[in-house]
Amino acid sequence: MVPHDRPLRRLAYTLALLCLPATAFVIWVDTGHPGGVGSEALSAPAWQDLGAGLPYVAAAAILATRLPRHPMTWLLMATGLSAYAVGVGSAYATLSLAGHGGHLPLTSAAIWAGGRIGPVINLSQLALLLYFPDGRLPGRRWRWPAGLALVAAVYVVGVLFTVPWRLLDPGGAVPEALRPDPFALPLPDAYWVSTKGFPLIFVSVYGFVLATFVRRFFGADAEKRAQLRWMLLAGCVLFALILGDRIAPPGLVYGLVSYLASMAVVAVAVLIAVSRYRLYDVDILLGRTLLYGLLTVLVVGVDITVFVSVGAFLDDPVAAVAGAGVVAVLYGPLRLRVQRGVNRVLTGRGEPYDLIAALAVRLEESTDPRELLREVARVVGRSFRASYVKVEVDGGQSAAWGEPADSALDLPFAYRGVHIGRLLIAPRPGTRLGDADQRLLADLVRQAAAAVRNTALTEELQAGRERLVTGIAEERRRLRRDLHDGLGPALAAAGLKAEAARNLAARDPARAGRILDELRGDLTGALADLRRAVHDLRPPVLDQYGLATALRRQAEAFDGPRLRVAVEAGETGDLPAAVEEAVYRIAGEALSNVVRHAAASECVLRLEVTGDTVALDVADDGAGLADGTGYGVGLIGMRERAAELGGELTVASGASGTTVRARIPRRRNDMEGTR
Description:
transmembrane helix; Beta-Lactamase; Rhopdopsin 7-helix transmembrane proteins; alpha+beta; 675 residues; transmembrane; 10% strand
């Protein structure tokens, strides 16, 4: 707390505390003299003025705790103290006139306060609403109109201060000697009679205040608009109270309740808007108030219209039934349309179900992931009337709607617990996204994330199938080329040599023997080529010995004086051929990388089959991989082999060595490996 604020804070507390004995005094007087003195100018009962002023004084005292210098604090206090002055003055005048014959000191001053200060309450309220919520006008050009409006209001108050008491209290309940006319002007009665319409000036000034409020609301930023919504809510409640007062049966009780509630709602709205508006979401309250307020007006209007129209031809009971029937039929559509309109005004969007349904239709019509992202951005942007929306997914794909903004709300989204992207949204100027909006956005984003992810998975599956088909075709082409260009000519040459040896066998046995020796060498080479081709299709060692033994034999080829390779592999059971081949080739490539890049002295190859997963780890104690080192075709190939079978491969490298981890599902696959 700022030390310089203490005097202001103490003053606010002192004024609020003084209102406590004043309240007790007024209640005591009203209890003893419930009828008052019969004067039209003095309030009876006086406690209703205190009931109107108490919320303002209490709100001012609470606001002074944190904001003793805020203009709203003292405008609230001025409004509340004005009401207290009227109530205390009326009570004291009643006590003096009804209980002591008017002989108490300051009776005339009390009569003047009780009968003439009332308009000051309206003046304080006007200033309060005009400068709400920050104590400033919307702009400099509003200074002259605001000044003229306040001057007009002050003029009305001045007229009520200077009008002769005999015109305010024509019944003569106050003795002439006690009539308070310290400021009365010696003007003709005709002039004072003409001023009876001056209170209408207050109405026009309230219209100007409404114009400033509208200007503030549509020109305010998100923070200030959140404050103004509280006063908008108070205005809706005031309208409902005024409407209820007009249609309710005559009686003092409802009138008092309506008056006190109308005074309290403004004070509470100012208090919350200035100090605590961030803690509460007013959109729900305001939306419901506007919804049912407009529905009430429309329903009453429809009912009256039907009643008057039908009543011209039928009896009143029939007309009433007809009006009720029309209202019952129209209530549902009216409520739906009004609800949508209220949502559009307050939040910039329609009903949550409508948004989700609209997005679902868009997603069903789109199959391209980029088009899906564009639809998500478009639907969110238009539904929330945002100035900018951008949807990004991991992998580089993104789509934007609107013009880029400096600041935007960042909402990450996930699919089945895995982060797959984020949504950036910048609300339109002067608005903010409340908690309900953010929850709705989260639901929309989750729905879109599932669609985007499923479409991406479909594309990945299609791409995988294309790679598989392409790999099979390339493998067949390579095999055909090897057989045609290598094995084919070798066998053709072998046939020619065999024919030559047969022809020379009788004439030149020695030469025929040399040709047969060459033929043996050619056939041995052709057999080696054939074995290599078969090995490329699938290592024969897997079928001969099984995966565990095949890995041990493979590791023996890398084991030597400089690198010790240990294999830890148990029984693998019956694994699909594609899984065995993928594990075998990944292990071979990983061991090859250890020899080429790791400069390691020891390497451990572990194979473990648990449940539905085949786990392969190749760990060395080398120096680790520098950035980019070893991440070439070999690593890409290992990852592709694991991914083709629905698995994954990761590499962890550090100062203590490098570990290649492959995890492949142990499900049967009808497709054999293609590498």
